[in-house]
Backbone:
């Protein structure tokens, strides 16, 4: 039987989602917890591969097991074994061909910025003391929806078949005392959101014009875009799937 697991995690102390040879990852800790509870080796496939230090308020993974689970009890047992930095929200059975990564139809991220020092938020946001022109940053963000090739915002050494992404939403908003950038697409490239944020901040700081975003994207050159902002302000917030993947529906 195949199950989806919905979880959230504080990425501060992890070297990203994916298992690494010499560093701790969320995937590794989750697999260890699953294997401990089931007394069998369990592997998981995640909906995405967040980088080191990036957080997730919602992410899904799937795993296979040769028994029907009592789902609520299984969630309780998992959370009892997992560290406080990882929380399992739900576990539910899906159709046997369902895939946490390939069947996701939309992913959403947020990047959080504070404009003055905050002792409680400095590890989970990015501090920008200089004034920002948010109106121009939103003008520039809208330009992203006009393009599909985002090679200029991707890590240079990455193995992908295409740099095309369908960005459906990109916007800056104030949420309390935080400036939050939200973006949604069918898929994202490695480092893409952090590079986009760094570039849009250059617009807000007056370093480049709004129209420059067109030239940067058309260049397909990572060097033309802005620097990547720090990982601690980035959150994977939502992953969406077709309803039909749930078993029995």
Residues:
């Amino acid at each position: 039987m195949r199950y989806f697991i919905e979880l959230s995690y504080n990425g501060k102390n992890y070297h990203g989602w994916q298992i690494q040879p010499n560093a701790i990852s969320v995937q590794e800790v989750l697999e260890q917890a699953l294997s401990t509870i089931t007394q069998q080796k369990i592997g998981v496939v995640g909906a995405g591969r967040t980088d080191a230090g990036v957080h997730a308020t919602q992410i899904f993974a799937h795993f296979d097991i040769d028994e029907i689970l009592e789902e609520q009890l299984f969630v309780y047992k998992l959370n009892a074994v997992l560290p406080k930095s990882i929380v399992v929200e739900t576990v539910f059975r899906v159709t046997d061909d369902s895939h946490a990564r390939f069947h996701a139809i939309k992913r959403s991220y947020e990047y959080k910025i504070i404009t003055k020092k905050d002792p409680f938020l400095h590890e989970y946001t990015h501090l920008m003391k200089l004034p920002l022109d948010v109106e121009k940053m939103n003008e520039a963000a809208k330009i992203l929806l006009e393009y599909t090739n985002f090679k200029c915002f991707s890590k240079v050494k990455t193995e992908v078949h295409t740099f095309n992404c369908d960005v459906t939403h990109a916007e800056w908003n104030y949420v309390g005392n935080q400036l939050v950038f939200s973006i949604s697409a069918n898929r994202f490239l490695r480092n893409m959101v952090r590079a986009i944020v760094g570039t849009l901040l250059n617009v807000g700081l007056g370093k480049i014009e709004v129209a420059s975003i067109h030239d940067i994207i058309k260049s397909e050159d990572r060097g033309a875009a802005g620097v990547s902002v720090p990982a601690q302000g980035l959150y994977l917030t939502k992953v969406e799937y077709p309803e039909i993947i749930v078993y029995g529906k």
